[in-house]
Design a protein that fits this description.
The protein has about 300 residues and is of the alpha+beta class. Helices cover about 50% and strands about 20% of the residues. It has eight helices and eleven strands.
C-alpha cells in the first residue's frame, strides 16, 4: 500500500514536471531554438503558440523574428580624393536562420560585433573608391555650378549617396547569411566634415546658391523685358490711336468750319469781309498801337469809310 502511494506520488511529480517544463508558448513576432545541454537541437520554431520540448533536459532560447536596428559608431573615413569625413551609418536586419545565428554569434551582442565588422568594412571599401562629391550628393541632384568668374561648369556624379548606400548593402549582404543574418538595408544617417572639408562644402554650397540666384535673376530680367516691351507696344498703340482719332476730329471740325465760312461768305461777301477785318483789328490794334500805313492799303479800307 505504501509502495502504491509512493508510485502515485512519483507519477504525479513527473506529470507536473512534464506539464510545467515540457510545454512552452512562443509569442507572436519571435522564434525559438531548443537547446539540449547548451547545444541547439532540431529546427527553429517560428510559428506562434504552444509547443512541446523534453522537460528538464531541454531549454528554449527566444529570438526576435522582427526587423532589428543596427547603429554603427561614427568613423573618420578617407575618400578617393584624399579628404576625410565622419560617417554615421545605420542598417536594418533580421535573424534569417536562427540555428546558424545561434551557432555563429550566440546572441545579440555577438551579432552587433559581427555587423560592426562587416558594415564598417563595406563602408570603408566603397567610400575609399569614390570622391567626396559622391557622398555629399544624391544621384538625381543638379550638378551645374557657377565658378568664381561667373562661368558655369558641370561636376560629374557617377553614383551619389543613395547608390553608394545600395552598393554597401550589396557587398555586406553577401557576407551576413553565413551568420544567419539577413540585411534589409543600409543608410547613411549623418555625414560630418572635418574643417578643411567643411570649407570646401560651404564653397560648393555658395556656388550652387549663386547659380540658382543667377538663374532667377536672368529669368526675372527676361520677364521684365517682356513686360516692358508689351507695355511699350500697348502705349504706342493707344497713343497712335488717340492721335489718329484727334486728327480725324480736327479734320471734321475744320471741314465744318470751312463749310460755315463758305456759306456765310456766299450770303454777303461784303459783310463777311468787314467782319473778318474787324476781327483782325481786334487782334492787332489796342490802346498802345500806332499804325503807319498808306491810305490805299486794304487794311485801311474800312477806317477810311468811317
Amino acid at each position: 500500500m505504501q509502495v502504491g502511494k509512493s508510485a502515485l506520488l512519483f507519477l504525479t511529480l513527473v506529470a507536473t514536471v512534464v506539464v510545467w517544463d515540457g510545454f512552452y508558448i512562443l509569442p507572436e513576432g519571435q522564434q525559438a531554438v531548443v537547446t539540449q545541454l547548451g547545444a541547439p537541437v532540431g529546427e527553429p520554431v517560428t510559428s506562434a503558440g504552444p509547443h512541446f520540448k523534453m522537460p528538464v533536459l531541454q531549454k528554449v532560447r527566444y529570438l526576435e523574428k522582427r526587423i532589428l536596428i543596427w547603429d554603427g559608431k561614427p568613423n573618420q573615413v578617407p575618400t578617393h580624393d584624399k579628404t576625410f569625413i565622419y560617417l554615421d551609418t545605420t542598417a536594418r536586419w533580421r535573424i534569417k536562420d536562427a540555428m546558424i545565428f545561434m551557432q555563429a554569434v550566440r546572441d545579440y551582442s555577438g551579432a552587433q560585433a559581427v555587423l560592426d565588422d562587416i558594415i564598417d568594412s563595406a563602408v570603408r571599401d566603397v567610400v575609399n573608391k569614390n570622391d567626396l562629391v559622391e557622398i555629399i550628393r544624391s544621384s538625381d541632384w543638379d550638378v551645374s555650378l557657377v565658378g568664381a568668374k561667373g562661368k558655369s561648369y558641370t561636376e560629374e556624379v557617377q553614383l551619389g549617396r543613395d547608390k553608394m548606400a545600395g552598393l554597401i548593402f550589396q557587398n555586406a549582404s553577401l557576407i551576413t547569411p553565413k551568420y544567419g543574418i539577413e540585411l534589409v538595408d543600409v543608410m547613411f544617417k549623418r555625414v560630418n566634415y572635418i574643417d578643411t572639408v567643411r570649407s570646401k562644402v560651404y564653397q560648393r554650397m555658395i556656388s550652387e546658391r549663386n547659380r540658382i540666384a543667377a538663374e532667377k535673376r536672368s529669368m526675372g530680367e527676361g520677364q521684365k523685358s517682356e513686360i516692358l516691351g508689351k507695355l511699350e507696344r500697348e502705349l504706342k498703340d493707344i497713343t497712335s490711336g488717340a492721335k489718329r482719332e484727334s486728327e480725324e476730329i480736327k479734320g471734321r471740325a475744320d471741314a465744318a468750319a470751312a463749310k460755315i465760312y463758305a456759306e456765310a461768305y456766299s450770303k454777303d461777301p461784303e459783310f463777311y469781309a468787314f467782319s473778318k477785318s474787324l476781327q483782325s483789328y481786334e487782334k492787332t490794334v489796342d490802346a498802345n498801337t500806332k499804325l503807319l500805313i498808306s491810305s490805299d492799303s486794304e487794311f485801311y479800307k474800312y477806317f477810311d469809310k468811317q
